[in-house]
Here is the input.
Amino acid sequence: MACKNTVEEWEYAIEVLRRSSSSVLPDMVKGVYPLLKFSYDSLPNDMIRTCLLYCSLFSEDYQINKDRLIDLWIGEGFLDGHGHTSLARKQGHHIIGSLLHACLLEEVSEFHIKMHDVIRDMCLWIACELEKEKWRFSVQAGYQLTKLLEVGNWGSMRRMSLMYNRIENLVETPNCPNLQTLFLNQNNQLKVISNDFFQFMRGLKVRNLSYNRSIKELPVGISKLVSLEFLDLSLTGIRQLPIELKALEKLKCLNLEFNHCIRIPRQLISSFLKLQVLRMAGCYDSLGQEVEDNSEWLVEELMVLDHLNMLSIPITSAFGLDRFLNSERLCSCNLVIELRLLMDLKVLNILSLANMKCLNYLRLYECENLEEVKMEWTWEARLIKVESHIQTSVIASEHCFQSLRNVEILKCSKLIDITGLILIPNLRRLYVQVCHNMEEIINETKLSQVAEVVETSSLFAKLEFLYLFDLPELKSIYRDTLPFSCLKEIEIIECPKLNRLPLGSNKAKKNKIKIRGKEEWWKELQWEDECTRNNFLPCFIRLP
Here is the structure.
């Protein structure tokens, strides 16, 4: 009803509600469902209605990751991007926005949404009862099942959710030629999947096996799923992908994230020629024993995937990073880049990554020899300055990293500061963890060397969340106060030498910030004056 603006629209809506409540709905739901069903019917088109019903496959109160949901919709074929794969993701975000605006989904965070229990019940009522023959849903999510039930009745099902159960073995051979979607994620007890389990699922398009750490082996029988377009194997215990997966020629979305020991046969990734989404962050041991060769080989395989649009990838050598940066098409993807175990990298020039126009997330992980993240203007950056006839190089920084929202730095023990990150104009979240020699976040001397590029008033201007954890030598974030006009939350844990925050009294007056930390740390903080301390006191949230 949120989109109804005129008196006539509201009068028509009320009349429709009167008619529907007296005819379609059973007595027990006449009080609530007419309103919800009307909101559902009032959605702009069938695609958005389908996407809403799809969310009811998730278990009750489940926080749905927006990007993973869009991956699913791409795998289902809901999103065509009007013929352009690059537009499909934007189309997905538009649909999520429409459902949020209609109050049929709730926003949990920038990355997650959820469906209210009553909305979910209404959607299941539509899909499983009112329009059962059209949708053919079977949802047994969160039922604590230990085995499959009524396998003989699977034949007519189109979409089935068995997520969040306790199923241990899948040894049946269900005959379900019409099944298109199967959620088996978060069955933490699941250990065995027989080869014959997939024998009669040749129409299956979407299969979710994520968050099943007990699964160590993927049966070669999965190669029978020749219609599969979406496969999620993230956060499993699978040690090796079978080469037989080459049979999945229609695959559009493959998620292998955070399978730390998974091995991937060479020429497998490059065989998925229709792949649009590939997620591999956290697969740092995936490509063979010789870590230095991993990234180079992987980049070579990725370069033949013409439809690739979304990529999360671990890069484990400086040479592999250089090969990646030299591929204009790969750099044009929506990117999550994990620079991990780069033992040959001592200095990272943050501007060397500027060609990644759609870099969304940057993670520096266990780069034990990395000593500095610096800013060194390349010839390309200087060309921007010359061609624009601007006397400073501010324009160069403004054109860099427009999409980069999140940076995480973990276990980079030789880093002393990360001043180079000030060139990221739209940074929203900064995580710095377990960097035992980190002394300050922004170094004043280094900042003065690039004063013409970045003004103090713009430092971390759009930062919303700052997390600092286990930085025993950290003494300063920045010597002076920072505006932090967008800051929502600071969390400080195990940073015993950090006794001052760059927060001015003006920020306290707005009282919109949360400061999380241990009580003993909070008591030792130094402030401009006692009034400022008292103003910030309601912002403090004590951690146990």
Q: What stands out?
A: The chain is about 25% helix and 15% strand. The two ends are 43 Å apart (CA to CA).
